[in-house]
Amino acid sequence: MNDRATARRRRLAVALLVVGLIAGAAAVLLWTATRSALGGVPMSTAPVSAPTAAPVTPADSPDPVASPATPTPASLQDIAGNPVHVTVLQQGVPLIDADVNQIQLNGDGWLSPDEGLAGWYGPPQWETVPGDLSDYRGIIVGHNVTGYGTKDVFYDLGQVRAGDSVVLTYALQAGGYATAGFTVTQDARSVPKQDVVAQAATTYKWVWQSDAPERALSLFSCDLDAPHVDGHSVDNWIVTAVRVS
Hints:
By secondary structure, the chain is an alpha+beta fold. About 15% of the residues lie in helices and about 30% in strands. The chain has a single domain (about 5-45, about 75-245), classed as Sortase, Chain: A (Beta Barrel).
């Protein structure tokens, strides 16, 4: 078995383990930061596997995979480095501008970046570097508010619109820095936290995977305007983007 196949098996094994661990407590593990308290952000699993049938979309919901045409990217290469900064620009004005560090699921099965930082869900649990060619999207998460109720780094994620730009800065393994540009493929969408995990291989496959290898990215935070249960938002904002430079 080649290295790529081995890595894929390892990633899916981790995903299956995580899904199994949270299946009985999703209502707790998928809640995130509230307006006044810091919580895990913003999901706690990865897709189990690619679906065998086309994604199923509720009749009363917009098609999650429908999006405006995105520019056909020039030939791009993987970047030998790790993301260390993310900027989201709307008409040239930054909506989000944050340093990034690598994170893993914590002992409770949460992704919880430090206050003031975005978190890249990276190896060994999730092996896609944002911007690399992969069947799976790169994942970057951020809190909406701090533990003191003030704005945190992804406070404005819900304002992101199709056509906005995402710029990632990477610290190169060989030294120095490089950047990659992404185009947002659809307006930020608010989705149920439990469903985005439970239906990761069907309705919400678009959050985690692509139909063919591409250089794609998903950004997560919680939706503070969604209904709350015991003080916790039940929905996440999700932004998807594809690399164009």
